[in-house]
């Protein structure tokens, strides 16, 4: 029952399966104990009637009082253990699930995040895990425990009288057949509801992230109308799904409860024919008041079990993805970056086709070419943010595909055009470059990156909060904090992706000055569209349509009249657009 298929079906860990078994066992004990209370009442009534019909002694009040007190005490104890097994243990599982998901995604290649929508991932981590929490704590142990305890009680009832047992229990399997028959419909509605929920989250996120552009274009009403439409669609989808599910659940409940009527009718017929006495029917009527109780909540929530399979599938999809793994030691003989016949495809679109070049240690290698030529892809592959589909990328004598990305990235510093900052102080945003760095180290890196100029004017200096993604800073200031991070890390390999593309001339000069300190003696791979920013590079690699079409020093390429780099430089000098 609790094999690998069960684990995947409900996205459970080994510990989660163990907790479910504990919850199931205590549910069985509780259900059987509650049924034993009906037995105490039955035998007390039987003794009482016998004392009035055949002159027997009155029932022992103290015996039954003691049994009742024992029943109450055991009931309290077993319910406490059941609560702990079904609720208390589950919350630890939820914590482990979220941490496990975060750890799993930390090891996934960045290509995964490029293909998955952020709102969809957020819905998985929060919404899907919340749904599974409810199923783990309220349904699984309770439901499977009810299956077993009802089977045990059914066997006991069949021993007493198989005719009344069938009259009492026939509705249970019929009710569950009806519910399980509706599983496909429930799953289909759950998938539609999940898609509608993600669409709402995506719409809200998109609106908030682009609020300035929306206002600037005077498109507020159009976006609000679109968002309202998504919310209405989600509401209708949820209502329709719950209505259909409710029809099946209530239909199953009604069918199950018909067992009360059939038990009374069958019992009355058997009494009239003299085949049973009234006390046996009385016992079955007592049992009926309890035998359906374990399923009352389960019937209401079993549809949620079906819908949870969709959430569990989304969670397991993340766990099934291959992670970027490798050795946890990285000691290359040099920090030359070597591309050998590297190819890479993104969504079945070939981005790189047999790319080969070497970025030598102590030199600046610039990747240039038109948009879409594969420059940024090369930078990401060089740091193993993505894995190449073919060919080899080496740092010195080491194939980076054999090294764990987190270990590999200890030797890399990256400065991108789009700087990501946190709603924290200047000090902590720079310290991100080196965990545990002292304040003195952070300030030294900040000064080397020319940050002192603007930090000194802030109210609390380095302890000033800079707002979400550095909202209180200019583009040049944000870029210099990014460079300060890289300086603090002081890694032997530096990747620069359009680090100065969006800056004005004054800020570009300041950033270039900071970069000159960062790049000294390092292996540098730089991506730029402005030719004047790469003319000082030691080597130029020109890419077009995912291929290297020429490479060499700037002076060598400029001297070649047929050089594409020379043509690009001349066109930019004239202020014209170029194409190749």
How would you explain this protein's 3D organization?
The chain has 580 residues and is of the alpha/beta class. It folds into 2 domains: 4-320, ABC transporter transmembrane region fold; 337-421 and 471-573, Rossmann fold, CATH 3.40.50. 63% of the residues lie in helices and 11% in strands. It contains 21 helices and 10 strands. A 6-stranded mixed β-sheet has the order 6-7-8-3-9-10, sandwiched between helices. A 4-stranded antiparallel β-sheet has the order 2-1-4-5, covered by helices on one side. Helix 5 (118-160) runs antiparallel to helix 6 (162-169), helix 10 (220-272) crosses helix 12 (293-320) and helix 16 (439-448) crosses helix 18. It is elongated and about 125 Å long. The chain starts with a helix and ends in a 7-residue tail after the last helix.
């Amino acid at each position: 029952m609790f094999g690998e298929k069960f684990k995947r079906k409900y996205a459970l860990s080994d510990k989660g399966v163990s907790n479910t078994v504990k919850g199931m066992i205590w549910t069985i004990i509780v259900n059987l104990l509650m049924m034993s209370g009906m037995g105490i009442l039955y035998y007390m009534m039987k003794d009482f009637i016998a004392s009035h019909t055949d002159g027997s002694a009155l029932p022992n009040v103290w015996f039954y009082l003691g049994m009742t007190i024992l029943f109450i005490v055991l009931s309290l104890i077993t319910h406490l253990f059941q609560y702990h097994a079904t609720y208390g243990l589950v919350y630890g599982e939820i914590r482990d699930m979220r941490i496990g998901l975060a750890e799993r995604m930390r090891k996934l290649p960045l290509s995964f995040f490029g293909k998955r929508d952020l709102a969809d991932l957020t819905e998985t981590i929060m919404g899907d895990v919340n749904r599974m929490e409810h199923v783990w704590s309220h349904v699984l142990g309770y439901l499977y425990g009810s299956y077993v305890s009802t089977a045990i009680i059914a066997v006991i009832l069949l021993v007493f009288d198989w005719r009344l047992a069938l009259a009492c229990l026939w509705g249970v399997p019929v009710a569950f057949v009806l519910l399980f028959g509706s599983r496909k419909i429930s799953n289909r509605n759950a998938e539609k509801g999940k898609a509608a929920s993600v669409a709402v989250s995506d719409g809200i996120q998109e609106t908030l992230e682009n609020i300035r552009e929306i206002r600037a274009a005077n498109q507020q009403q159009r976006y609000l109308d679109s968002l309202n439409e998504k919310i209405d669609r989600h509401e209708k989808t949820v209502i329709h799904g719950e209505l259909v599910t409710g029809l099946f659940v209530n239909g199953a409940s009604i069918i199950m409860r018909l067992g009360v009527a059939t038990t009374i009718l069958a019992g009355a017929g058997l009494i009239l024919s003299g085949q049973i006495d009234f006390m046996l029917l009385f016992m079955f009527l007592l049992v009926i008041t309890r035998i359906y109780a374990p399923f009352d909540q389960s019937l209401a929530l079993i549809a949620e079990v079906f819908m949870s399979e969709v959430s569990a599938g989304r969670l397991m999809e993340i766990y099934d993805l291959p992670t970027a793994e490798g050795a946890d030691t990285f000691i290359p003989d040099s920090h030359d970056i070597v591309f050998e016949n590297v190819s890479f495809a993104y969504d079945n679109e070939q981005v790189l086709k047999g790319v080969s070049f070497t970025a030598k240690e102590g030199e600046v290698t610039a990747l240039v070419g038109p948009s879409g030529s594969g420059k940024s892809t090369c930078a990401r592959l060089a740091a193993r943010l993505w894995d190449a589909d073919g060919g080899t990328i080496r740092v010195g004598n080491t194939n980076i595909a054999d090294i764990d990305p987190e270990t590999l990235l200890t030797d890399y510093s990256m400065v991108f055009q789009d700087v990501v900052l946190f709603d924290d102080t200047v000090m902590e945003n720079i310290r991100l470059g080196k965990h545990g760095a002292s304040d003195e180290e952070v300030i030294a890196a900040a000064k080397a990156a020319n940050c002192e100029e603007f930090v000194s004017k802030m109210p609390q200096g380095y302890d000033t909060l800079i707002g979400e993604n550095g909202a209180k800073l200019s583009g040049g200031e944000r870029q210099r904090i990014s460079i300060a991070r890289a300086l603090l890390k002081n890694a032997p390999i530096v990747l620069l992706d359009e680090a100065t593309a969006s800056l004005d001339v004054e800020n570009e000069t300041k950033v270039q000055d900071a970069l000159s300190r960062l790049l000294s003696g390092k292996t540098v791979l730089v991506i730029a569209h402005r030719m004047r920013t790469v003319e000082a590079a030691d080597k130029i690699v020109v890419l077009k349509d995912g291929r290297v079409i020429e490479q060499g020093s700037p002076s060598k390429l400029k001297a070649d009249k047929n050089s594409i780099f020379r043509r690009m430089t001349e066109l930019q000098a004239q202020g014209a657009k170029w194409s190749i």
